[in-house]
Amino acid sequence: MIGTASELTLGHTAPQARPRWWQHLCLPSLALAGLTAGILWVAVAELLRQGNLSTVLTAGWVELAAPLLIALVVVTGICERIWPAEGRPILARGHVQDACYLALHAMVVIPLMTMLSVGAAALIGTQSRWIELRPAAHWPGWLLIPLTIAAMDGANWLAHYADHRLDALWRFHALHHSQEELSVLTSFRAHPLMHTTGFVLATIPVVVLMPARPIDPVLITIYVCIGTLQHANLRWTFGPVGRVIVSPAYHRLHHAMDTQAVNLGVVLTIWDILAGYARFPSRAAGPGRTGLAGRPVPVEQGNSGAPALLLLAGQLIEPFQARD
Ligand SMILES: [Zn+2]
Ligand SMILES: [Zn+2]
User: Fold this and answer.
1) What is the DSSP string of 123-181?
2) Ligand 2 centroid, distance to 251 Cα (angstroms)
3) pLDDT tens digits in sequence order for the chain, 324 residues long
4) Phi–psi pair at 297, nearest 5 degrees
5) Which one, of 285, 266, 86, 251, lies nearest residue 160 by Cα?
6) Ligand 1 centroid – CA 170 distance (Å)
7) Are 213 and 140 in contact (CB under 8 A)?
8) Could you give the CA distance from residue 212 to residue 220 in angstroms, rounded to a whole number?
9) How many whole angstroms from its chain centre is CA 39?
């Protein structure tokens, strides 16, 4: 590189200007945090106006921390000990770290998800007269409910696609992909702000198809259970059913170090098939390595030796730090 005239004359390089404090921050990440705060503000205002804030938060717990989901996590954990895809100690660092995320999920993420749903419904609902499909009000439940859940799954696929395509969203999604020791607990290893786009997009089909009829909470719980099972440390492909429903082996390919562009499906594989992103696993292939090459997110398998909670704080702060 050619220096400036003054540098050449003086024979030294001018001192570099020190970056300002805000140059250390990732501004798109702050923007997403601000958007999320705005949706939560709308949700709280709406529920306070209706006088049922605690009722809605309790209902969110019933849906997202149902006994069925807790039982699924316990039973899957036992299956992982009996038929592990990768053998490792029960207190492997990845398991301990993801257990911390389970606690965060219970304390912070479930109320956050509930309020995001309410806020998104309140915001999108203001446009319902434009987007509501009025004939759907006369469709039978056996058609309308599966259709709405499938459309919500499609919206979740789209949000996941955006997580991988847009750098601002990837900064939050990368934490989920950083796990090198997948287990059923990895389902809860997610930055709280990773959920904003998914909940906003998944609200649209509900407003379009079922604005006046709530979906049975049991169906939502079953949906969440299937989505949770996909991270299990198991080789299960679900056989022929795995062509339709995302299996642990199918989703593991999405977490592989070299094939994250495939298998974006959350519960149904149809969206991957339609988009040409489906790659079905074979039991003979064996489990590949998971995680992120170069470890851009600090991970427990690194050499820091930091306590789990301190590392968790570092992982949550990481998306807000500007990268060179
Ligand atoms: Zn992903
Ligand atoms: Zn995953």
Assistant:
1) HHHTTHHHH--GGGGGS-HHHHHHHHHHHHHHHHHHHHHHHHH-HHHHHHHHHHHT-SS
2) 6
3) 334 444 444 455 566 677 777 778 889 999 999 999 999 999 999 999 988 888 888 888 777 777 888 999 999 999 999 999 999 999 999 999 999 999 999 999 999 999 999 999 999 888 877 888 888 888 888 899 999 999 999 999 999 999 999 999 999 999 999 999 999 999 999 999 999 999 999 999 998 998 777 788 888 889 999 999 999 999 999 999 999 999 999 999 999 987 778 999 999 999 999 999 999 998 777 778 899 999 999 999 986 778 999 999 999 999 999 877
4) -105, 135
5) 266
6) 9
7) no
8) 17
9) 18
In the numeric block, which tokens belong to residue 107? 């304390």
Distance separating alpha carbons of residues 170 and 29, to the nearest angstrom: 10
- pTM equals 0.88
For the record, the structure tokens of 4 come out as 């400036």
Nearest ligand to the C-alpha of residue 160? Answer: 1
Decide: helix, strand or coil at residue 294: coil
Radius of gyration of the chain (CA): 22
**Torsion angles phi and psi, residue 321, rounded to 5:** -95, 130
Identify any residues that bridge with 290 across adjacent strands, giving them in sequence order. Answer: 256
Q: Which residues of 293-304 are buried (b: 16+ CB within 10 A; e: fewer)?
A: eeeebbbbbeee
How long, in residues, is the chain?
324
Q: Which is nearest to 323 in space by CA: 12, 14, 23, 13?
A: 23
Q: Cα of 160 to ligand 1 centre, how many Å?
A: 6
Rounded distance from Cα 264 to ligand 1 centre (Å): 6
Q: How far is the CA of 213 from the centre of ligand 2 (A)?
A: 30
